Structures are given as C-alpha cells and as structure tokens.
Amino acid sequence: MDRIRSSTIGRSLFRSPDRATERDRAAGHWANFFLHIYPVKVRREELTFRYSAFLGVASLVLFGSLVVSGIYLMFFYVPSPASAYGDINTIQNDVAFGQYIRNVHRWSAHLMVLTVAAHMARVFYRGAYKSPREFNWVIGVVLLALTLLMSFTGYLLPWDQLAFWAVTVGTSMADFVPFVGDATRTVLLGGGDVGSATLLRFYVLHVAVLPTAITLVVTIHLWRWRKDSMLEQGGDQ
Amino acid sequence: MSRRERPSPQIVDGKRVLGIVPGTPAVGDRKVPASDDLVMTSPHLLVRHAVAAIFVLLIVLALALFFDAPLKDIADPTNTPNPEKAPWYFAALQELLALFHPQVAGVLVPTAILIGLVALPYIDRSPRMGSGTRKVAVTTFTVFLVLWIILTIIGFAFRGPNWDWVWPWEEWHGEL
Amino acid sequence: MSNEMDRRDFLSRSWKVGAGLIGVAGLWTTADLLWPRVDAAAGEVRTVAADAVPADGVIEVSAAKAYLTRDAAGEIVAINEKCPHLGCRVPFCESSGEFECPCHGSVFNRLGEFREGPTPRGMDRFLVTVVDGMVIVDTGNTISGPGKGDPESIDEPPAGPSCSEGSGHA
Ligand code: HEM
Ligand code: FES
To answer: Is the model's pTM score more than 0.80?
Structure first.
C-alpha cells in the first residue's frame, strides 16, 4: 500500500504518500473527500460503544441501502393505479432477486425509523444537544421529520389495501389543522380523495424531493458534527 | 530519489522522535489514557464505523432473507379493511386518535412534540452533560418516551377489528 | 432617517427586494401549479327509485359513495360513507342496525347520528332531491353531520350484536 501511495499515480490520487506520523495522516485525511467529513481527531470516549451506540452511522448506512435498493425498484415500477400493484407483483414473481430487493428496501425503511429515533434518544441522554451543538440537534429534528415523511410516502406506493387506507387516514388528520389544513391536504392528495394524482405526487416526493432534501440536510448535520467537535477541541474550525 | 534510501525515521506513538532527553516529563507520567484524550480518527474511529456499518448491513440482508415484505389485496376505495392499521411508527398517534378529538390527537400533540424537541436545547441551557445532573429534562423526556413506546405497542399489537382490545397471542393484527 | 438615499443604499436594497420578489413569485407559481383541477367526479348522481329507499334499514349507492335511508318524518336522507373522523368507509352493520367504523370504532345510528367513539360529529350528508321518482344525490353538496351532543332523532337502540367480535361496546 505504501508503495502504491508513493508511486506517481498514487501521489496524484492521495496527495500525501507518507503515513508514518500523525502529521502525515492528518494531511492524508484532509486530502480525502470521504474522510474530510470527519474531524481529524476525536476524543477517546467517542470510540466507545456506549458513547453513540453508532446509531448515527447506522442511520446513514440504512439511508444508503434505501437509495441503492430503491433505484433498483424504480426500474420496474410505474406510479399509476392501473399498474402500480401489478408492478409490485411482477417485481416479486418475475424479476430476478426482485422480492429480495423489495424486502431489503422495506426492512431498511423500518430500521431507519428505529435507528434515527434511537439516535435521538442516545444524543439526548448523553446531553450532546448542549452548547455548541444546539443547532445540530435542531437539524436532527428536521431529519427525524423527513425520515417519517419518507416512510409515509413510500407506504402508499404498493397501492394495496394497507397502503390506500393508511394514507387516507393519515392525510385526513390535516383536515383538523386550522386555516391551512384543507389546502395542504388538497395539494398533497392532488384532489379530494386518495387517487391517481395522489400516487403520482407521493412518488415524486418519495424518489426525488425527500431524498434530495435528506441528503442535503444530512450533509449539513455531519458538517456541523465535525465543526462542533473541533470547536470543543479548542480549534478554530 | 526513492524514499527507502532516506534514513528511517524513528516513530513512537505516531510521533517522530527528534531526540531523547534524560529526566522526567514536565507534565508528569501519564500512562492511563483519559476519556477526553484526542486520538486520530483514522484509523481508530474509522474501523469502528466500518464494523458498525457492516453489522447493520448484515442485519438488513438477513432480515430480508427470512421475512418477506407484505402485499395485501389491491387498493379498494369502497372497502376499508377491519382493523385499519397505520404503519407502526404512527401506531401511537392512531391510538391517541381513537381516544381524543382529532384536533387534539392529530394536530395539537404532534405539533407540541415537534416544538418541544426543537426548543429543548434552548430551554435546558445548563452546561452539565451527565444525565444524573439534569433530572427535570431527563425525567420529562423519559416519561414521554416510555408513554410513546407503550402507545405504539398497544396500537400495533393490542388492537383488533373496530379498534377493540385484543390479546396479541390470541389474535394477531400487527402489520409491518 | 433622512429622505435621501445614497446609491449604495439603493442598490443594496434593490437586490434584496428583487430576490424577495423572485422568491414570492416562485412560491406562487408552485402553489398554483400543484393546485389540483376541479374535481369532475363530484356532482349530481342519479341513484335508485325513491320507493326502494327503506325506512328500517339502509341501501348503499356506490356510485355516490352514500347510503340512503329515511328519517323519522319519512324524508330521504343521503349519508356520506366517509367517516367524519378520518375518512374510512363506514360499513352498515345489519345485525345491530348501526354504522360501525372499523378504523377507530366510532358508532352511529341508522341516520348517521353520533353514538360513541372519537369522531367529532355525526356522519355528513349529501343534498337529495327526488325527480320523477328517482333519487338524485348531489355529491358536490355536503351538509356537515349532526353535532356530537345533539339528541338522536330516532329511537332505535342496537337491534342485536355488533359486527365486531369481542366488542367493547354494546
Ligand atoms: C437521517 C437521520 C440522521 C442521520 C443519518 C444522522 C447521522 C449522524 C451521524 C453519522 C452523527 C455522528 C456520529 C454519531 O454520533 O453516531 C450524528 C451526530 C449527531 N446527531 Fe444525528 N443523524 C440523524 C438524525 C438525528 C436526529 C433525529 C437528532 C436529534 C434530534 C440528531 C442529533 C445529533 C446530534 C446532536 C449529533 C452530535 C452528537 C455528538 O457530536 O456527540 N441526529 N448524526
Ligand atoms: S375514521 Fe372512523 S373512527 Fe376514525
């Protein structure tokens, strides 16, 4: 590995070939796109399981799994009442590994809601929402809401009885929100009742709007995590 | 020229040794690492994150192997299934909706929870972190969390047709 | 503040106002774009002959998503199938002679008047007219259901067992 790193191509790729001293490794860290979302150093306690239970990481991994399995499903799914249900059947019965990919997507979604909620609880009990991390906690609450919305919009897509009525009941709650409730519900459903417009709208939210939003907000969340961590170490970051 | 011809630097604990001076260190002898000592992220934190990631992925891949995602009959607007269950993460909300006016259960409670969560770090300003030293915050949060978990379990597993009480070991109506 | 505004002030304000305007225009466009067209489905539905509407039970007219029955005075009433609570379709239970919502257990009498459960009011109704002996239901014209505290206008206690097994209510 050291030989690869110090070759001409290796140098162009990694920029800093040496990894002997901490200074070398810090330089390599900053030069790596994927590593630079991490602080260079962390407090030793952050290495332990009881510090974070790695639940933030787990949420991130599950989000990744959802994106990958979701793209696979998109190749076989058309969001219209005439075809959605049949497409799911086709995925399960005729597409190679279709059922398995659908299972992965479903289980990742359930688990992500669980890990995000548990991550929040862990952060709370550790008191990690305190200064200077107040705002990252707020960003976290936004992420929790986005995660729930993501799950809820996805729930409609199979267009089975479970999906249809869960969304009917869920969106009817909006009726009771003063002033803006009716309008919100009408725009969300694309009409008075759950129908073809609703399926299309939920699909667009589920595969385009919400994942983009989550990606953006998670990026800010992690960036703040690094900044806040370095702030605490007395750095000027 | 090739780096192999340079004199090999002496590295101890990730630091280049420039020279050795006799005597005791000014900061005293510290053999036991303190919890807020700084360590390099790479590799110490990275390997742990990698292990956590692989562990989570394995769980998902195994669950997906053994449990198939459900697919009921095609959506039928003229026929509501009985019982009608929301996804499990909204089961607590659905349980509340069966008990209180929708303006309370469906609007007031969720809004209050969201606002409460957002406001938390601005209300609890004391710099102390340990959970023993902020009893009010910890108690409130715990009460809400436990209530929410209980409501979720009731709504998910203990409710049957017409939202009547059932024992899950007699009739199972949970849907994932 | 003086009336005079120097060039620097003016420019710095203009770009903010400009950005604001673009933002508002964007929001406006988005809202308008997403606002659904008028629901063509709602309107008058010709259902059944008036003679067919029972006074001791209900008949369902799926084309209008409604039930037809008669009130104490013998007038035809069209009841919206949708639960006023959260929109589940409420089936009529023949054995008890009540409407029983499967979602959160709201119960209504034969006229859709409130009996129990978390619903905020009785079942909503549609405007009904009888033309040439045929019942016309105007699904575009909903009348909010009778209030939760209103007394029932018919005296019909549950005729028999409810349709939900192991029921917690009468
Ligand atoms: C999409 C959902 C989320 C993802 C992917 C995510 C990811 C992460 C990751 C990777 C970390 C750093 C490592 C760790 O502590 O495990 C972190 C830290 C943190 N998260 Fe989240 N998170 C999410 C939701 C939330 C929520 C819902 C909250 C709370 C309301 C929250 C609050 C925090 C805070 C305050 C930190 C800093 C903790 C510290 O530095 O000790 N996050 N998050
Ligand atoms: S939808 Fe009928 S009781 Fe809730």
So the answer is: yes
- Nearest CB to C88; choose among A169, A191, A197: A169
Ligand 2: which residue has its CA nearest to atom 4? C104
Contacts of A176 in chain C (CB under 8 A): 120
Burial class of A47 by CB neighbour count within 10 A (0 to 12, 13 to 18, 19+): middle
- Which chains form contacts with chain B, at 3 or more CB pairs under 8 Å? A, C
**What is the secondary structure of B44-75 as a DSSP string?**
IIHHHHHHHHHHHHHHHHHHHHHSPPP--SBP
What percent of chain A stands above pLDDT 70? Answer: 98
Could you tell me if C156 and C72 are in contact, meaning their C-beta atoms sit under 8 angstroms apart?
A: no
Residue B40 dihedral angles phi and psi, to the nearest 5°: -70, 135
Q: What is the pLDDT of residue B1?
A: 40
Which of the ligands is closest to the CA of residue B80?
2
Which band of pLDDT confidence, cut at 50, 70 and 90, is reported for residue C167?
A: very low
Helix (H) or strand (E) holding B137: helix B135-157
Query: Candidates 2.102.10.10, 3.90.1200.10, 3.40.1550.10, 2.40.420.20; correct CATH number of C44-165?
Result: 2.102.10.10
**Residue-level length of chain B:** 176
Interface predicted TM-score of the whole assembly (ipTM), two decimals: 0.88
CATH number of the domain that residue A82 is part of: 1.20.810.10
Q: Residue B118: left if φ>0, alpha if ψ -120 to 50, beta else—which one?
A: alpha
Residue B129 CB partners (closer than 8 Å, separation 6+): A126, A127, A128, A130
CA B27 to centroid of ligand 2, rounded, Å: 70
In the three-class reduction of DSSP (H, G, I as helix; E, B as strand; rest coil), residue C68 is classed as strand
